[in-house]
Amino acid sequence: MQLNKNINTNLLKEQSFPSYNINNNEDCILHFGIGNFHRAHQALYIHEILENNKNISIIGVNLRSEETNNKMQLQDYLYSLVRISNNFKKVDILNPIKKVLFGLKHKNEIRNLIISEKIKLITITVTEKGYHFDKNKKLNFSNQIINDLEDKELSTLIGHLSFGIIERYKKNKKKLIVLSCDNLSENGTILKNLVKQFIEKKYPKCLDWFDNNIDFPLSMVDGIVPNNNKQSEYFNLPYNDNTIVVTEPYRDWYIQSNNDELKNILSNNKIKFVEDVKFYENNKLKILNASHSALAYIGHLCGYTYVHEAIEDKNIYNFILNFLDQEVLPTLEIKDDFNINEYKMKILERFKNTYIEDKLLRIAMDGSLKIPIRILDTYKNNKGVAKYIQFIIASWLFFLFQIIEEDQNRLDDANKEYFYSVYKNNKDNFFEEIINNKNIFNLSESKKEEMLTAVKKNLNLMKENPLKSLLKRNNFIR
Predict the structure, then answer these.
(1) What is the C-alpha to C-alpha distance for residues 434 and 371, in angstroms, rounded to an integer?
(2) Cα 80 to chain center, whole Å?
(3) Which of 81, 142, 204, 403 has the most CB atoms less than 10 A away?
(4) What does DSSP assign to residue 94?
(5) CA distance 94 to 79
């Protein structure tokens, strides 16, 4: 029995079925990036709002592939969300998404939606690389962006957004909210500047209106959603579902905005509207995301596959705990109403969730984009010798070298062509050249030299000793 709207709900066991009919609801939210994270996070919040009879819906856009849409369409865009941990399980059937469009095929329909007065909110989860920015967070005029400037087949978020906003200006000049939900510090500000730079090239006449009418709030989202391949039978579901999403029970969504329209659309008391999102965002990036990256490289080099396996290794656990206590927490802002130690311990406990099966290799990819934001920013703010960060950087570079040497096709990174080139032309100085690359290691000369010296020594230790033994003996450069 396939999950769809005609399913006999009497056959359902503990699964809740939507009380609303999404096809009767007005278009309101356009979302770029209908992946697992969106369906486990923002779409769940919208589902809860819909259960309270709100007349809204999500129309999705995917930029990379039609696979998600093809699967969801067969199920009338219903899907099962499994929230699970070692002591909790809840399965809900969700239907907040009305349909999903494909960026390369449905340019005009996407543009008409951005123009439409009914669309009041655009939300985004396309990961860091989907923004096409350079080391200074300026628009990188890559081949994809240059192609999109010609307004042919659009392949980027920036292209779709920019042309849609230009046409909204020409047709009705209605206000619009664009909300980034990606792991970027100052995500809304970065996105606004990227779109503005694109529009400057195409239609600068609308920039004054753009500045005053398109709102880009800052936001912070939290929730671990891996690429889990579990099937219906694993969870004893009484139907077939090809689009199951598995996530942890924990989730957060902080938004910095006083926009009444946005608060009206997102009328869910689990969404926290705050005066300053940077505090929460910085804690998450520097504690959760940084630990995730550290675990990915160190865990993989120790032979583990999943996050929960790596964190259960007491030597890795102690390394991560010391990294946070000695080098991360001292650099973070303190607020009386936020217990940062409790938050840290909750994160480490979340990593132990055996049901999530989050692969270290997944987290390890795109290191050249993640490392500067998650770890090097903390390194810059450290007043003492940051031996744990230096070891993490050495682990990343050692991982990078190994993955290219074994099978370069396994590497997924925005700078992979650069890494291949360094490996091919300057293999003996691979690590030194990358640390000297200011696009990745934007450090002062003194910090860079300190890093380079420590990383070289740590790499020599890694070449001569299994990583597990180094961690067990706490034997790395101090």
Answers:
(1) 13
(2) 21
(3) 81
(4) E
(5) 6
Instruction: Quick: pLDDT tens for 90-123.
Output: 999 999 999 999 999 999 999 999 999 999 999 9
Q: Which residue has the tokens 């005066």?
A: 275
- The answer to the question of residue 3 being in a domain is no
Q: Has residue 4 been placed in a domain?
A: no
For residue range 303-347, list pLDDT tens digits in order. 999 999 999 999 999 999 999 999 999 999 988 888 999 999 999
> pLDDT grade, residue 476 (50/70/90)?
low
Q: Residue 420 is encoded by which pair of tokens?
A: 């291949």
Residue 189 domain boundaries: 9-275
Residues 310 and 218 both lie in one domain: no
Q: What is the pLDDT averaged over residues 223-252?
A: 92
Q: Of 218, 240, 275, which residue is a domain's last? A: 275
User: What is the spatial distance between Cα 163 and Cα 438, in angstroms, rounded to a whole number?
Assistant: 32
Confirm if 187 and 219 have CB atoms less than 8 A apart. yes
Bigger pLDDT: 129 vs 259: 259
- Looking at the fold, whether 186 and 311 belong to one and the same domain comes out as no
Asked whether the beta carbons of 15 and 91 are under 8 A apart, the reply is: yes
CATH number at residue 397: 1.10.1040.10
Give the per-residue pLDDT at 27.
Answer: 85
Whether 317 and 382 map to the same domain: the answer is: yes
**Whether residue 266 is found in the same domain as residue 325:** no
- 478 has pLDDT over 70: no
**Do 217 and 179 meet the contact criterion of CB atoms below 8 Å apart?**
yes
H/E element, 60? strand 58-62
For the chain, how many structural domains are there in total? 2
CA distance 303 to 300: 5
Closest CA to 1 of 237, 223, 318: 237
Q: Are residues 452 and 327 in the same domain?
A: yes
Which H/E stretch holds residue 314? helix 314-322
CATH of residue 263's domain is 3.40.50.720
List beta partners, residue 29: 58, 121
Q: Are residues 132 and 17 in the same domain?
A: yes
**Are 35 and 167 part of one and the same domain?**
yes
- Tell me if 478 sits within 8 A of 322, measured CB to CB: no
Residue 478 CA to residue 474 CA, distance in Å, equals 10
For residue 128, name the pLDDT band (cuts at 50, 70, 90). Answer: confident
Please state the pTM of the whole predicted model.
0.88
